[in-house]
């Protein structure tokens, strides 16, 4: 068991190095390579952090959903660890989205926050998964915590499409901000900007897996310590 | 199948009889929602804003808050004296416990709403009778979804250390689609818009109801596992 854990620990530095290099490349692309946007100026560069963070948080919440289903199906601690780790990483990146968004919006829209459909969706998502983490913190380690968290992980993700449509129709009377629709790939986007966005997306995805690897390892080490403690107590 | 229904009915009956004996829950929910409406009336100036614009929001917040009291109570009652343990030990399917609790929560909340609506009509000076049919459909759809998800989450939160606090934190973010939909639909109905023009909202709320009844059936076994 210990050997296995050690081997996994050896495997992760490769991923960490790849992530570090990818992030370095993304930084070079964002701050040196990509041209400054004509109307928005330098502040537009935050988009290369904002969109990848949003993508990673959605990916993370999807992983929580899948792991939760697999946990309830197979009842293996492994899946509970994945769900927990992914929820933590997801909340981290969702927080980044909520921080980088207003920084960009203040000079461009003239307001820190607008009750636009996407902003509302992100905020509600953040609240759902913070509640998920609170639920985990409230219960003692064990099968009960894992089962409860899994139920919430499933319910939370299934709710996302419903929330999406409700906030979309809620603000249907207001015109959608032009800047957000032009974020769609393709039309009118400079190839250099598109390339930078994709480098950044790749780098953030690597970062997600690197953080996940670390977090999962940490949780497994914690389990090992608990087991060793229990063994030591029993042998006394 | 008949046995299943009679098992569900037994749980609902037990809850109703308990409530008839104590009358604790209904009075608490009713007074609390009147207070919520009152506080909102103090915080908004009804001579400036239109009653049909703010009214639906106030109404649904009152329903939601009072409903949360009821949900919190529904499984806490079972935790006392180990009643839940007894229910789980009965040879009935676990989903019967869910449906029993769901129906009794729904009945309490609908009953309370029936008492709140006339008060709302008086306080906000809105004519509800003209569109009563569509209004009742909207309220039924929203309350159904609230109780479907709420019963699932209260069965879960009743085992936590800080149960009363955790239920709203878990429940409210997930209730966002129903809250937006119900408030929007109620507002339009009070303006005299026919329900047939809001089929997207009706569909969305129905989807919510069906999805969370489904999720509950699939997962209640894992929550009521002892």
Give a verbal description of the structure:
The complex is a heterodimer of chains A (236) and B (226). In chain A, helix 1 runs antiparallel to helix 7 (191-235), helix 2 packs across helix 5 and helix 4 runs antiparallel to helix 5 (143-170). Chain A has one domain: Four Helix Bundle (Hemerythrin (Met), subunit A) (Up-down Bundle). Helices cover 81% and strands 0% of the residues of chain A. Chain A contains 7 helices and no strands. Chain A has helices at 2-33, 47-74, 77-109, 117-138, 143-170, 178-181, 191-235. Chain B has one domain. Chain B has helices spanning 2-22, 24-43, 51-79, 83-89, 94-124, 132-157, 163-190, 199-223. The A-B interface holds A 72, 124, 127-128, 131, 134-135, 138-139, 144, 147-148, 150-152, 154-156, 158-159, 162-163, 165-167, 169-170 and B 149, 152-153, 156, 159-162, 166, 169-170, 172-174, 176-177, 180-181, 184, 200-201, 204, 207-208, 211-212, 215, 219, 222-223, 225.
Notable traits:
heterodimer, A: 236 residues, mainly alpha, 7 helices, B: mainly alpha, 8 helices, 83% helix, globular
Q: What order do the helices and strands come in, and which of them pair?
A:
The complex is a heterodimer of chains A (236) and B (226).
Chain A: H1 2-33, H2 47-74, H3 77-109, H4 117-138, H5 143-170, H6 178-181, H7 191-235
Chain B: H1 2-22, H2 24-43, H3 51-79, H4 83-89, H5 94-124, H6 132-157, H7 163-190, H8 199-223
Helix pairs in contact in B: 1-5, 2-3, 2-5, 3-5, 3-6, 3-7, 5-6, 6-7, 6-8, 7-8
Brief write-up:
The complex is a heterodimer of chains A (236) and B (226). Chain A contains seven helices and no strands. Chain A is mainly alpha-helical.
């Amino acid at each position: 068991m210990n050997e296995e854990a050690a081997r996994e620990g050896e495997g992760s530095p490769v991923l960490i190095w790849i992530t570090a290099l990818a992030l370095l490349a993304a930084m070079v692309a964002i701050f040196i390579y990509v041209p400054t946007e004509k109307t928005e100026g330098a502040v537009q560069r935050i988009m290369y952090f904002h969109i990848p963070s949003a993508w990673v948080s959605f990916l993370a919440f999807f992983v929580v959903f899948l792991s939760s289903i697999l946990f309830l199906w197979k009842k293996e601690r492994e899946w509970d660890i994945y769900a927990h780790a992914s929820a933590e990483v997801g909340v981290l990146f969702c927080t980044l989205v909520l921080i980088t968004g207003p920084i960009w919006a203040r000079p461009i829209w003239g307001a820190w926050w607008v009750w636009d459909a996407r902003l509302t969706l992100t905020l509600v998502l953040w609240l759902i998964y913070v509640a998920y983490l609170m639920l985990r913190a409230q219960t003692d380690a064990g099968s009960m915590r894992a089962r409860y968290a899994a139920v919430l992980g499933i319910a939370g993700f299934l709710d996302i499409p419903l929330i999406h449509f409700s906030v979309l129709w809620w603000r249907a009377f207001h015109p959608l901000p032009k800047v957000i629709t032009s974020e769609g790939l393709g039309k009118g986007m400079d190839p250099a900007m598109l390339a930078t966005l994709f480098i950044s997306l790749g780098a953030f995805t690597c970062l997600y897996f690197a953080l996940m690897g670390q977090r999962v390892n940490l949780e497994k080490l914690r389990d090992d310590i608990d087991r060793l403690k229990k063994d030591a107590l029993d042998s006394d | 199948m008949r046995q299943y229904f009679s098992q569900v009915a037994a749980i609902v009956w037990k809850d109703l009889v308990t409530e008839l004996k104590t009358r604790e829950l209904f009075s608490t929910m009713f007074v609390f929602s009147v207070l919520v409406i009152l506080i909102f009336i103090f915080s908004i100036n009804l001579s400036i804003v239109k009653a049909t614009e703010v009214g639906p929001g106030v109404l649904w917040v009152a329903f939601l808050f009072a409903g949360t009291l009821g949900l919190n109570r529904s499984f806490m009652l079972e935790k006392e004296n180990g009643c839940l343990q007894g229910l789980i030990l009965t040879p009935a399917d676990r989903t019967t416990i869910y449906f029993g609790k769901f129906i009794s929560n729904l009945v309490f909340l609908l009953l309370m709403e029936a008492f709140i609506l006339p008060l709302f009509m008086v306080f906000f000076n809105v004519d509800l009778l003209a569109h009563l049919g569509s209004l009742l459909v909207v309220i039924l759809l929203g309350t159904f979804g609230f109780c479907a998800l709420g019963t699932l989450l209260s069965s879960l939160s009743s085992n936590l250390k800080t149960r009363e606090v955790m239920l709203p934190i878990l429940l409210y973010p997930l209730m966002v689609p129903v809250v937006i939909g119900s408030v929007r639909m109620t507002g339009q109905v009070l303006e005299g818009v026919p329900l047939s023009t809001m089929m997207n909202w009706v569909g969305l709320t129905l989807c919510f109801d069906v999805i969370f009844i489904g999720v509950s059936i699939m997962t209640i076994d894992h929550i009521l596992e002892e």
